[in-house]
Specification:
Blueprint: H1 17-21, H2 37-46, E1 50-53, H3 83-93, E2 100-103, H4 110-117, E3 121-125, H5 129-139, H6 146-157, H7 181-196, H8 201-215, E4 221-224, E5 227-230, H9 235-246, H10 264-284, E6 294-297, E7 313-318, H11 328-331, H12 333-338, H13 343-352, H14 364-373, H15 377-388, H16 391-405, H17 413-435, E8 436-447, E9 449-451, E10 454-456, H18 458-468, E11 472-479, H19 487-493, E12 500-506
Parallel strand pairs: 1-11, 2-3, 2-7, 3-6, 7-8
Antiparallel strand pairs: 4-5, 8-12, 9-10, 11-12
Helix pairs in contact: 2-16, 2-18, 3-4, 5-8, 6-10, 7-8, 8-10, 14-15, 15-17, 16-17
The chain binds S-adenosylmethionine.
Residues 77, 79-81, 105, 107-108, 110, 125-128, 131, 300-302, 319-321, 328, 353-354 line the site of S-adenosylmethionine (SAM).
Length: 512
Amino acid sequence: MVDQLSLFPDSAMPETTADRGNYIVDVFSAGKFCDESARQALEKRYTPILEVTEKFDRRSVSYQRSKKDVLHSWLKYKEGFSADLVNILLDDMGAVPGDTVMDPFMGSGTTALVCQLRGINSIGYDILPISKVSIDAKANVMHYNIPELEAMIAEFAQLDLPEGYAKATPYITITDTAYPAFNEKYIQFATEWIDQSLFSNAAKNLFRLCVINSLERCSYTSKSGQYLSWDSRSKKVFEANAQRERAGRKLLPQHHCRKVIENVHDAVLEELRHVLSDIRTIQSSSNIEGTASIDFRQNSVLFELPQVGSNSLKGVITSPPYCNRYDYTRTYALELVYLGIGEEAIKEMRQALLSCTVESKPKIEALRDYYQIIGAEDRFDSIIDTIRQNEAFREILLALEKRKENGDLNNDGIIRMVDGYFTELAFVYAELFRVCRPGAMVAFVNDNVRYGGEVIPVDFLSTSFAEQFGFIPQKVYCLKQQKGNSSQQMKKYGRVALRKSVTIWVKPVDAN
Ligand SMILES: C[S@@+](CC[C@H](N)C(=O)[O-])C[C@H]1O[C@@H](n2cnc3c(N)ncnc32)[C@H](O)[C@@H]1O
């Protein structure tokens, strides 16, 4: 395990003992059911660099603060973080035009876009095609032909659904009948219209982004983490209830995702007008720094990062999926299907994403094969050995096994998920150490979690992996607002501190 830290000045300590007490975990294993000594050791080791901060808040680590931002509001990506957070971290790392910053989990592209506006190059990955549409659309902001967009919007404003139009947008099982009848047809009609139009590819892509940003509010569904939640006015719930009634079963409760299911034509038109107004504002502003490149690859970071050249990055700003069972391929199913992804391809995408659902299968053998193909078996062996040496990680996996035997886990897939999640993330940490320049700063936003009464300190555990790979842990910023405890876990095991953190690591200046 890593050596004792002696790097941090007293000023890095959280302000008061009372403050700190609220954020430090006293008991990791509810009822002291499992060994928690390695997690206690991590807590002791990294508490000196824990800083309860108002520098970031719940809004800056989430999409909330971007809602009204020009550009960043073009895609409501609930899992995104804010431009404010990226700006603060770019300042902290001292990034200047010409530098390159990476976001290995790009999402809607907040890091890349903020970098671009500051003349900083960026590189990053995401598996979801939604990211590509979003990043392409926003990265082009200075180059849109405004008269062309005005013409596209004017034509779309007059675009009526022809009488007798019989086609409808495709569905997959989990999205079946998600839209009211008019929207179902209109989405398909508008898709054909834009595909067949003579507008430029950039304008067409922007149109698609506006549709993506409208689909949820024009549907009977809402994104609720692990699944799509369904409105009781939908055909799906209606039919399920009819069946339940016949079988004498309790009916599904009345639940409205939103007051009104919007008309998709009006919603898309509103989005188009909104982005056009932002484009006008940005194009006429004079404070955009030169040109900067965005190198976005639509692929898994696990299979791209190993090929990036060493010592090339000024820093990293990112937020991976959290270890919370949220399934992006379910919550974004409407958008994925709209972009032409079918049932099987969505299932494949689910497996390609970082393991963060109970359905995730291990990727370690695929990774081993891949490192072999690129002639980096030694690197693979060394990373995997380092991961296995992490005592806290071993302790957590053993504790979860014991919890499983005791019937405390509501899904056995949780162990596989936690194992895969940290193994895969540790590969990312190891590769980031290699591709960072000496002195580079790495920032990860993440949430701590608890399963079966076992606290997993994601921030400190990740920091311990980072330290094993050579980074200097510099700071763990902890937001004043913590993550809520799930009502089930709280009832069974009591309340516990679950930090929302931004971990900061630095590659030593004398590292090679
Ligand atoms: C928390 S979100 C990032 C949001 C981003 N910071 C933003 O502001 O929009 C995590 C992203 O990681 C992506 N992701 C998950 N597994 C991945 C993988 N193996 N490679 C690349 N991206 C992945 C997800 O699709 C998701 O978009």
